[in-house]
Amino acid sequence: MREYHSISSLKKFEECPRCYWLHYVAGLGEESSPAQQVGIEVHEAIKDYHLGKPISKGLQELSNKLIGVYTENVTQSEFDVPEKKLLVSLENIATGEILPTLFKLIIDGINTKTDWIYEHKTSGSYWKYDDIATNIQATGYAYGYFKVYNKLPNGIRFNILKKNKIKCKYQPLETYRTFEDLVYFFNWAKRIVNEIEVSDFQPKITRFNSHHRFCPYAGRE
Q1: What are the b/e assignments for 5-20, b being 16+ CB within 10 Å?
Q2: In terms of Cα–Cα distance, which of 90, 107, 111, 92 is closest to 154?
Q3: 118-136 residue pLDDT tens
Q4: 3-class DSSP state for residue 83?
Q5: What secondary structure letter does DSSP report for 31?
Q6: How many angstroms separate the CA atoms of 213 and 17, rounded?
Q7: Domain positions in the chain
Q8: Which fold would CATH assign to domain 33-198?
Q9: Cα Rg for the chain, rounded, in angstroms?
Q10: Which residues contact 22 (CB under 8 A, 6 or more apart)?
Q11: 74 three-state secondary structure
């Protein structure tokens, strides 16, 4: 069993066991798409902004536009802990059951005074409340927060930066998680961890057949 799992690794297995094996067992990396590269640059620049560091001048034009929109709408003091890295046990907080693996996550921002969590997203479209109300990533962040601070976060704010070649826009959306949501997260993680342990990592069949043309590992086995 792996020493730890993340939301990304668990979701990867759910999407396609073969892709999970190629990435997390065989160590075959994925090449970042142009959109992912923009997201990486923006996240790093946002972290520097909240740490009071100068933002890199070597960013892509679109990344610069997105950062400009962010700094116009979000104050530097919005949260005091940017990019919090956590490694916690996977425990059912209702029953005390503990899995023999850890949960690794990175929360984009935490305000330790207000107990709010912040998540940054770059997107080509507007988000709806339903997109974050059941977002498993947000639930995982709330779970990790609970494990470290022994309390639920008061809320989770998504700072969504909508990409546009002409004018980028800022869209804030807020949600929260309950004790029951954290139990649901544990059960979700437990199910996938157990499936990984007995899996033969066959490709997931989709309407494009296994390893369709959108798969980052297509033709690379």
Answers
A1: bbbebbebbeebbbbb
A2: 111
A3: 999 999 999 999 999 999 9
A4: strand
A5: P
A6: 16
A7: 33-198
A8: Lambda Exonuclease; Chain A (3.90.320)
A9: 18
A10: 28, 217, 220, 221
A11: coil
Going from the C-alpha of 14 to that of each of 17, 87, 163, 198, the distances in angstroms are 7, 21, 28, 14
pLDDT tens digits, one per residue of 136-158: 999 999 999 999 999 999 999 99
Model pTM?
Answer: 0.91
- Which residue matches tokens 């004790």? 179
* 122 within 8 A of 83, measured Cβ to Cβ: no
Residue (of 144, 147, 87, 90) closest to 117 by Cα position: 144
Report whether 17 contacts 24 (CB < 8 A). no
Long-range pairs for 50-55: beta carbons < 8 A, 24 or more residues apart: 50/76, 50/78, 50/79, 50/82, 50/109, 51/82, 52/76
| 134 class by beta-carbon count within 10 Å (0-12 exposed, 13-18 middle, 19+ buried) | exposed
Q: Is 140 exposed, middle or buried (0-12, 13-18, 19+ CB in 10 A)?
A: buried
What is the model's pLDDT at position 165?
77
Structure-derived torsion over alpha carbons of residues 215, 188, 191, 120, reported in degrees to the nearest 10: 30
